[in-house]
Amino acid sequence: MSKQSIFGRIAQLTRANVNALLDQAEDPGLMLDQLVRDYTASISDAESAVAQTIGNLRLIEQDHAEDVANAAEWERKARAASRKADELRTGGNTVDADKFDALAKVALGKQLSAEKEAKDAEPTIASQTEVVDRLKTGLTQMRGKLDQLSSKRDELNARVKTAEAQSKVADAVKSIDLMDPTSEISRFEDKVRREEAKVLGQQELAASSLDAQFEDLEDLDEQTEIEARLAALKLGA
Predict the structure, then answer these.
(1) Average pLDDT, whole number, for the chain?
(2) Sorted alphabetically, which keywords does the UniProt record give (predicted)?
(3) What is the dihedral of CA 117, 123, 126, 132, to 10 degrees?
(4) d(C-alpha 205, C-alpha 209), whole Å
(5) Which residues contact 105 (CB under 8 A, 6 or more apart)?
(6) 6-179: which CATH topology?
């Protein structure tokens, strides 16, 4: 993945307006699931690319540090060769002194070459450091956006489940209204009242029969009394 494509992908995803995307989606739940998958995959790709970019920067920094160290080492060697040449020349050995001066010049040339390489690498290190910082910031924003998407998805799923439950309750209430169970209760109540009325009638009927029996008994007693008095009259005559 090229550096430009990394920047483009990160910029596109971090600028994405989640609410606007959901408003345009026919099925927000599926849209969120897809966005979470896309963000997760994009973050994984971006992390690999950023890690590679950081690794390249660290290699350049290591080479730069090595060039700086080499430059310092060649400077040390040049000074040592120059001092040795001065000592030899002071002692009258110009031939060997010239050899050590030549070695000092070689060391100085190596020093200049190392310093140039180190200096040439510094703009690259600076620009790559800026790139890495921007990529890290973008990754942080992408992770934040992924957290936002995940939270939004969980919230939406919870709302969908709540809506489904409310819909079931509404359907149940509607079916109860259509069935109108109060009419069944009224019919049952009427049946119970009729049964109660029947029992009252039977009780009343039984009571009437008993009253009649007592009346018959009273009539029999009265007739017996009449017969007894009639018999007494006859005996008195």
Answers:
(1) 80
(2) Coiled coil
(3) -90
(4) 6
(5) 78
(6) Helix Hairpins (1.10.287)
Q: Could you give the C-alpha distances from 236 to 213, 222, 226, 230, 232, in angstroms and in order?
A: 35, 21, 15, 10, 6
> What are the residues whose beta carbons fall under 8 Å from the beta carbon of 63, sequence distance 6 or more?
117, 121
**38: closest CA among 142, 120, 190, 140?**
142
- Give the residue, 95 or 234, on which the prediction is more confident: 95
At which residue do the structure tokens 């010049």 appear? 105
pLDDT at 154: 85
Helices (H), the chain: 3-15, 18-24, 28-90, 94-179, 181-236
pTM of the predicted model, to two decimals?
0.55
Residue 37 pLDDT more than 80? yes
> DSSP for 103-144?
HHHHHHHHHHHHHHHHHHHHHHHHHHHHHHHHHHHHHHHHHH
Report the amino acid identity of residue 163: A
Give the residue with greater pLDDT, 161 vs 15: 161
Query: CA–CA separation, 223 vs 228, rounded Å?
Result: 9
Residue with more model confidence, 150 or 214: 150
pLDDT at 189: 79
How confident is the model at residue 139, as a pLDDT?
A: 87
What spatial distance separates the first Cα and last Cα of the chain, rounded to whole Å? 152
